[in-house]
Amino acid sequence: MTLEAWVPLLVLCSSLVPGLLIFGLDESRIRLRTTLNLAGAVTKLALVAVMIWGVAHGHTFEVRLTFLPGLDLALRAGPLALLFLVLSSLLWLVTTIYAIGYLEGSPHRSRFFGFFSLCVTATVGVAMAADMLTFLLFYEMLTLATYPLVVHRGTEVARRAGQVYLAYTIGGGALMLLGIVWLYTLTGTLEFTPRGFVSELDPSHHPALILIFIFLITGLGVKAALIPLHAWLPMAMVAPAPVSALLHAVAVVKAGAFGIVRVVYEVFGVEFAALLGVTLPLAILAAATIIYGSLRAIYQDDLKRRLAFSTVSQVSYIVLGVAIASPIATVGGLVHLVHQGLMKITLFFCAGNLAETLGIHKVSEMNGVGRRMPWTMVAFTIAAFGMIGAPPVAGFITKWYLGLGALDAGQHWVLVVLAASSLLNAAYFLPILHAAWFREPPATWPEEREFGRRETARALLWPPLITALAAVLAGLFAAMPFSPLEWARFIAEQEFRRP
Amino acid sequence: MDTAVLVQSGLTAPILLPLIGALLAFVMRRWATPIGLLSVVALLGSVILQVPSLFADGPQRLAVGGWGAPLGVDLYADGLSVAMLLMTAVVGLGISLYAAAYFRDTPARTQAFWPLWLLLLTALNALFLSADIFNLYVTLEILGLSAVALTAIVGGADALVGAMRYLLVSLLGSLAYLLGVALLYHAYGTVDIALLAERIAAEPATWAAMGLMSAGLMLKTALFPLHFWLPPAHASAAAPVSAALSALVVKGSFYLLVRFWVELFGEIAGGVATLLGLLGAAAVLWGSIQALIQTRLKLLIAYSTVAQIGYLFLAFPLAVGTGIMAWSGVLYLALSHALAKAAMFLVAGNLLRFGGHDRIADLDRVVQRLPLSMAAFALAGVSIVGLPPSGGFIGKWLLLQSALTEGRWGWAIVIVLGGVMAAAYVFKVVGHAFTESENPHQAQPVPATMEWVAFALAAAAVLMGLIVSQPLGLLEIGNPFGIQTEGAAP
């Protein structure tokens, strides 16, 4: 095997090996566990940097293993894979730091961090999968690795949430398996190809292809929380805050959205999909999800549930951008993969800080919290404005490109959806900001913990500040080379370039 | 002796080694455990030694004592038989190590266990290697009797009732099989499978024989609706015995069904394939539903076996048209099920030892308290559910592919549905293992060997999903499915 083939494997191993080692660690080995966690995260980031450098210089990072006769398991780091890889490996580092601070002194940390590392391993596998079968392998592994995190607290509520989570994801996975095998019997290949590999099939297979599309999108839509497959997501809020961050920003919903990108662009090809007539229903479903999620978010008093419904809504921007068959909208959808991740992880970190430091779990308890925890609320505010779509935060860029793309494709109704969504976003975020900054704080907080001069523990404060800053930078410097936007544009060019 | 003869007489080793072990363990009771372990290790070694020559020279045939068919007893080994031998030896080694720790404190049971268990291995290996249908009857009978006796060694009312029912079923199955053998011998004048395959014709005697033999074997394999005896027997036995019964014993009679089907009856009995498939589908659905509603872990695992056996029978209709793909899929399922199901029953044994009961709702945070065992259960579950990467996934993939290639949606839906239901019952257990129980139990220590063996077997089931081409290549040696390979897709 060449050196280049090793890199993708090393990227997998950089979290798999620490994860397995951590499982074997005694609960009291705190320092060693922390070292392993951080070493893995940093190594992964370094390896991803190597791959970016390499891909920009024309190297290909690919590794194959024969699976069944005629079918390979393959990992490849193309531009699209790198987009997701960078996002997940960056956010993993931040989330790891946060999780170490958050779980300080709580039980079963070896188990937690073991599965935590497996989750990220599965996520980078999803990112680098070069074909549908490899994708499925890591996609299912992600389900299995997140389950113990969802039920981590071991309460009856957690168990139920875990059950619902599995019912949705395993059911979706089964449909996907059916679709994938069917696709394979028709085409004899499952390899992701720019602009797809099914368009050459005889037109008599078109009804079958439509059904396959539905199977695949249903399986992926479960994780991407498209309605009506979203119900597991708000329930999974019983998990600890770093897990929510993982579910909402780094791994799970992203894997679903990313899979939809792969299926639409690299299995079917967006133009062929439009010809089949499957993209418009997908766009409508995404738009409905955007509106529905926001509407439900308004009525949640529980902060994490409000954020969860906000995720339901926001992730569908990615799907919407993908389903509008226009290069510019594609850029908007792809870049939102990164932007939503940065903003949503910030919000969840902040929610975790409020819960950990002051015992605040509800929106109605947030009056005046900005005075007690100014830095946390600054990060929260930046991310919230980003979600609403205010410039210069990254969310604005997304909406701009989605809007332009919709006009370009002649889908004017999308503008209405975007505008309505921004209004609704404002409707559920602005009251929080108003209460936090302008209302009088209560005499006592529900459950306050002291951290000396700082508002909260250092490991809890830095992560949201860093991700909030990143969200601003991604917006401000969107036109710079290697910005998420430029990278998304590079990918969109590939997917639309005529052969 | 030249090497070819040596290699060929090596064929008798998998039968002779455990047989000698059984006799020694019976005579030298105090040394039963070391003798048993030694025999099983030697057995595994002798089977592994067969593999290279099989890859090099193809199938082996050995006339024991130099007589040859039709007069003497012939042994025959192709890829399929050696794969089954390997499965038995590997799982057998795991069960033996486990049993050594499990029975440590009960010398009486230790002394009863080892001779019977080694006899059971002897019978299974002889079954996989015999080339004539009468000899097979003898192996089936020994297999059945030693299995029944093993079921009974824990004593107690439950085990005895289960064993009694098992005994009657086993005898009935063998009897039906023997009648079929008599009919075939009367009609064609031979009991050698290869000679029979040349002479067999579509006539009433053949059909009657086929019906009787298949019914007997279906009963022994516990195909729905003939599965009624399995859950009580498998659930009431001692943990290592349950593992052996579910993982290995039912595979013996299934193996014979496959053999006869592809070599003797397949050509002349098209419609019956659909019937077998339908019963298999019913078993998948019924077994899974039953597993889902069980409140005891061992019963849940036993009903899961009923469902997984159902999968094996889907190959009969699917093989018509896609031939080897369906067969290798199903055999892959059978092999990985052996590993995974043995692991599950061993875990159940650990949990029983640990908490003194196997009520699923009262598992009481065993994820924290026996992490290795629960990891083993979850990994085995991955294979049983058929999630990637695992042997179960490969098997289901091949089955699904052969169903969809021919556009046979009914079978495909059963395959997928069975997986989803399996996920439901596996994770029902895992979920309760995380939560605290209302009546916490007095925890007893579990020997580390018992935990590690279960884990190793489960890990092997998962590993079978990553190392695929070698096992598939092994299954194809001598192409036991030669008759039906035409039309096999990619």
TrEMBL record, chain A:
<feature type="transmembrane region" description="Helical">
    <location>
        <begin position="36"/>
        <end position="56"/>
    </location>
</feature>
<dbReference type="GO" id="GO:0016491">
    <property type="term" value="F:oxidoreductase activity"/>
</dbReference>
<keyword id="KW-0812">Transmembrane</keyword>
<keyword id="KW-1003">Cell membrane</keyword>
<feature type="transmembrane region" description="Helical">
    <location>
        <begin position="413"/>
        <end position="438"/>
    </location>
</feature>
<feature type="transmembrane region" description="Helical">
    <location>
        <begin position="459"/>
        <end position="480"/>
    </location>
</feature>
<keyword id="KW-0560">Oxidoreductase</keyword>
<feature type="transmembrane region" description="Helical">
    <location>
        <begin position="76"/>
        <end position="100"/>
    </location>
</feature>
<feature type="transmembrane region" description="Helical">
    <location>
        <begin position="208"/>
        <end position="233"/>
    </location>
</feature>
<dbReference type="InterPro" id="IPR052175">
    <property type="entry name" value="ComplexI-like_HydComp"/>
</dbReference>
<keyword id="KW-0472">Membrane</keyword>
<feature type="domain" description="NADH:quinone oxidoreductase/Mrp antiporter transmembrane">
    <location>
        <begin position="129"/>
        <end position="422"/>
    </location>
</feature>
<feature type="transmembrane region" description="Helical">
    <location>
        <begin position="112"/>
        <end position="139"/>
    </location>
</feature>
<dbReference type="InterPro" id="IPR001750">
    <property type="entry name" value="ND/Mrp_TM"/>
</dbReference>
<protein>
    <submittedName>
        <fullName>Multicomponent Na+:H+ antiporter subunit D</fullName>
    </submittedName>
</protein>
<keyword id="KW-1133">Transmembrane helix</keyword>
<feature type="transmembrane region" description="Helical">
    <location>
        <begin position="6"/>
        <end position="24"/>
    </location>
</feature>
<feature type="transmembrane region" description="Helical">
    <location>
        <begin position="315"/>
        <end position="338"/>
    </location>
</feature>
<dbReference type="Pfam" id="PF00361">
    <property type="entry name" value="Proton_antipo_M"/>
</dbReference>
<feature type="transmembrane region" description="Helical">
    <location>
        <begin position="272"/>
        <end position="295"/>
    </location>
</feature>
<feature type="transmembrane region" description="Helical">
    <location>
        <begin position="165"/>
        <end position="187"/>
    </location>
</feature>
<feature type="transmembrane region" description="Helical">
    <location>
        <begin position="375"/>
        <end position="401"/>
    </location>
</feature>
UniProtKB/TrEMBL annotation, chain B:
<feature type="domain" description="NADH:quinone oxidoreductase/Mrp antiporter transmembrane">
    <location>
        <begin position="130"/>
        <end position="420"/>
    </location>
</feature>
<feature type="transmembrane region" description="Helical">
    <location>
        <begin position="136"/>
        <end position="154"/>
    </location>
</feature>
<protein>
    <submittedName>
        <fullName>Multisubunit sodium/proton antiporter MrpD subunit</fullName>
    </submittedName>
</protein>
<keyword id="KW-1003">Cell membrane</keyword>
<feature type="transmembrane region" description="Helical">
    <location>
        <begin position="452"/>
        <end position="472"/>
    </location>
</feature>
<feature type="transmembrane region" description="Helical">
    <location>
        <begin position="326"/>
        <end position="349"/>
    </location>
</feature>
<dbReference type="InterPro" id="IPR003918">
    <property type="entry name" value="NADH_UbQ_OxRdtase"/>
</dbReference>
<dbReference type="GO" id="GO:0008137">
    <property type="term" value="F:NADH dehydrogenase (ubiquinone) activity"/>
</dbReference>
<keyword id="KW-0472">Membrane</keyword>
<feature type="transmembrane region" description="Helical">
    <location>
        <begin position="370"/>
        <end position="389"/>
    </location>
</feature>
<feature type="transmembrane region" description="Helical">
    <location>
        <begin position="268"/>
        <end position="287"/>
    </location>
</feature>
<dbReference type="GO" id="GO:0042773">
    <property type="term" value="P:ATP synthesis coupled electron transport"/>
</dbReference>
<feature type="transmembrane region" description="Helical">
    <location>
        <begin position="237"/>
        <end position="262"/>
    </location>
</feature>
<feature type="transmembrane region" description="Helical">
    <location>
        <begin position="299"/>
        <end position="320"/>
    </location>
</feature>
<feature type="transmembrane region" description="Helical">
    <location>
        <begin position="112"/>
        <end position="130"/>
    </location>
</feature>
<keyword id="KW-0812">Transmembrane</keyword>
<feature type="transmembrane region" description="Helical">
    <location>
        <begin position="35"/>
        <end position="55"/>
    </location>
</feature>
<dbReference type="GO" id="GO:0005886">
    <property type="term" value="C:plasma membrane"/>
</dbReference>
<comment type="similarity">
    <text>Belongs to the CPA3 antiporters (TC 2.A.63) subunit D family.</text>
</comment>
<feature type="transmembrane region" description="Helical">
    <location>
        <begin position="409"/>
        <end position="431"/>
    </location>
</feature>
<feature type="transmembrane region" description="Helical">
    <location>
        <begin position="207"/>
        <end position="230"/>
    </location>
</feature>
<feature type="transmembrane region" description="Helical">
    <location>
        <begin position="75"/>
        <end position="100"/>
    </location>
</feature>
